[in-house]
Specification:
The chain has 8 helices and 7 strands, in the order E-H-E-H-E-H-E-H-E-H-E-H-H-H-E. A 7-stranded parallel β-sheet has the order 3-2-1-4-5-6-7, with helices on both faces. Strand 4, helix 4 and strand 5 form a beta-alpha-beta unit. The relative contact order is 0.15.
Length: about 260
């Protein structure tokens, strides 16, 4: 693991109850940060909080529906109340659904955009006044390799991740003068609960098995393996470190070479 020191830093991580968000929260705690574990499932958030505390780090849990303006504001206020500052905002909360465009309902489209796009926007908007006041901060948004090159049968999801890249670039330029770095991480194939469901949907759409889909992904990756939550968390930590002080507005691929731009 990278030898970064986040002592005296505070990380607010959404979608931290499981998957990549959980791994990121644990990674930042191990690197010395105090962590606020934010998730719509408070039981999951509490379990992650307790796991962090068990290794001697400071952590709090908060329930948040990232699509709700009031929840986003309360999440940020809770973090400030508990720790007095927010140094890192990590927008990991997300959802996907694989389906043909002609079978995509307005409800499907709006739900995906509400969580992936509106949730990112609301989290940033609530956090920025505090980062601007302290004239420092790092914001990391979770886009995807599909936020740069779309896949078939996932138009709503891909479009939402392209939108996350737009938010990342626009906000990066807006707050650069305030010493705030805004970047995105673009994971490849990470077998979280969400990806397990996605591969099942892909298999059904293609008339093959889930193992066939996973093999297709593996075959497309030059480094010859799927990505892990730890792979993603390590890059998020790098982007929040002083080593990345001159990086902003970027979308960093973590795809094992499956995507090169």
């Amino acid at each position: 693991m990278f030898n970064f020191d986040f002592k005296d830093k505070v990380a607010l991580v959404t979608g931290a109850g499981n998957g990549m968000g959980k791994c990121t929260a644990l990674t930042f705690a191990k690197l010395g940060a105090s962590v606020v574990v934010a998730d719509i499932n408070i039981d999951n958030a509490t379990k992650v909080r307790d796991e962090i505390r068990s290794v001697g780090a400071l952590a709090e849990a908060v329930q948040v529906n990232v699509t709700q303006e009031e929840d986003a504001e309360k999440m940020v206020a809770f973090t400030i109340e508990k720790f007095g500052q927010i140094d890192f905002l990590i927008n990991c909360a997300g959802v996907s659904k694989n389906m043909k465009l002609v079978e995509t309902t307005v409800e499907d489209w709006e739900r995906i955009f509400a969580i992936n796009v509106k949730g990112t926007f609301l989290g940033i908007r609530a956090t920025l006044p505090h980062m601007i006041k302290q004239q420092s901060g790092k914001i990391i948004n979770f886009s995807s390799m599909t936020g740069k090159e779309a896949f078939a049968n996932a138009v709503a999801y891909c479009s939402s991740k392209f939108a996350v890249m737009g938010i990342t670039q626009g906000v990066a330029k807006e707050v650069a003068k305030d010493n705030i770095n805004v970047n995105a991480v673009c994971p490849g194939v990470v077998m979280t609960d969400m990806m397990h469901k996605a591969t099942e949907d892909m298999a059904e759409l293609q008339g093959v098995t889930k193992d066939d889909i996973i093999q297709q992904f593996s075959d497309s990756i030059p480094l010859n393996r799927l990505q892990t939550p730890e792979d993603i968390a390590g890059v998020v930590a790098f982007l929040c470190s002083d080593l990345a002080v001159n990086m902003t507005g970027q979308g960093i691929n973590v795809t094992g070479g499956a995507q090169l731009h």
